[in-house]
Amino acid sequence: MSLRGLGLIVIAALILVGCRTVDPVAEPPATDEAPSTVVSEPEPEPEPEPAPVEEPVVEPADIEEPTTPIAVPEDLYNKAFAEVEAVINELNEIIRRGDFNRWLNFLTPQYVDTYSHPEVLARLSRQPLLVQNNIRLRSLRDYFQDVVRPSRAGARLDSLIFYSDTLVEAVTIFRGQGVILYLLRKVGDEWKIDTFEKPPADGSDE
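Above: the chain sequence. Below: its structure as tokens.
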């Protein structure tokens, strides 16, 4: 079973990111001879310089998300581990307090959009333990209260899986198995909770 699949099971079990210069023309020397008529051909106009070719702008949606784990140098791993561990410890305290507004500061826009979407919330509401407890998710705040708080308040980081220098999965060991706690994306100097899942495009509810 994959880590991601096992992670979903554990979440359920826990109740649930210039101008060209021209040289001056010299004056001809003075002579007594009558000046001869000189017919000069006009200089050919310089060919216009080709317009610079603009590189295509790649929208974020066009960038393929890395989904294959990679190996990274030990110093990078250790640095990221220390940073992520500090973030998870801070998140644990925020989640214990139930501080929804503070928790929002640790989310990427994609995470917010996905877990605010009615169709995603309706699907999550069909998880057996939520059904048994008569829990219906209708908002991101509901998701925080009824899924995140029961399953993430005491999270412990045991290892990282790297997808790039700025995209990692935080893993904890649960009953001898690795379980995904978070997908984290580094935005600037901050690690934020992200998701590989995207909200449905049509915006319709079920």
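The beta strands are 159-164, 167-174, 177-187, 190-194.
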